[in-house]
Write a structure and sequence with these properties.
Keywords: Membrane, Transmembrane, Transmembrane helix. This is NfeD family protein. Helices cover about 40% and strands about 20% of the residues. It is built from 3 helices and 6 strands. A hairpin with a 2-residue loop joins strand 5 (about 130-140) and strand 6. The radius of gyration is 25 Å and the shape is rod-shaped. The N and C termini lie far apart (about 75 Å).
Length: about 150
């Protein structure tokens, strides 16, 4: 088999596409698509400098498109990933839950379970279904206060 530049770019595109399976950020997939498009230009006979320039241009267009436009389609609405613990939850009301395997009291914030501690009393166990007001995190413990009803 004769390895010409077009086949090399296709092999790079395939490897980048496979590497995307481990990251999920769509950056490597965008680079793989850019490499596949560059392969098409290499098949047309463009020289290496033009192929590299085309790879740069395709990457510059496809990566922002994938990260800013396409990736949000795969995230559930209303969940701000990466913001838990930055203070955006402060003042929100949550309902307490009991964890299945150990019966610990906690709240779910952005889909993750956090054990709780009541700020006023230091209690760590509340009845399931109690309304609490989130104040802040102390390590991985959610510090809450009772909601006055």
């Amino acid at each position: 088999m004769d390895w010409n530049p077009a086949l090399i770019w296709l092999a790079i595109a395939l490897l980048l596409g496979l590497a995307e399976l481990s990251s999920g950020g769509l950056v490597l997939l965008s680079l793989g698509v850019a490499a596949a498009l560059t392969s098409a230009l290499a098949a047309l006979g463009l020289t290496l400098p033009w192929q590299l320039l085309a790879m740069g241009v395709f990457s510059g267009i496809l990566i922002p498109l994938a990260v800013k436009v396409i990736r949000p389609w795969f995230s559930p609405r209303g969940v701000a990933y990466g913001t838990t613990g930055t203070g955006v939850e402060k003042g929100h009301t949550y309902t307490t839950l009991k964890r299945d395997f150990d019966g610990a009291s906690g709240v779910k914030i952005n889909g993750d379970f956090y054990r709780l501690r009541v700020a006023e009393t230091g209690e760590t166990e509340l009845p399931e279904g109690s309304l609490v007001l989130f104040q802040h995190f102390d390590g991985t413990t959610a510090v809450v206060s009772h909601v006055q009803t």
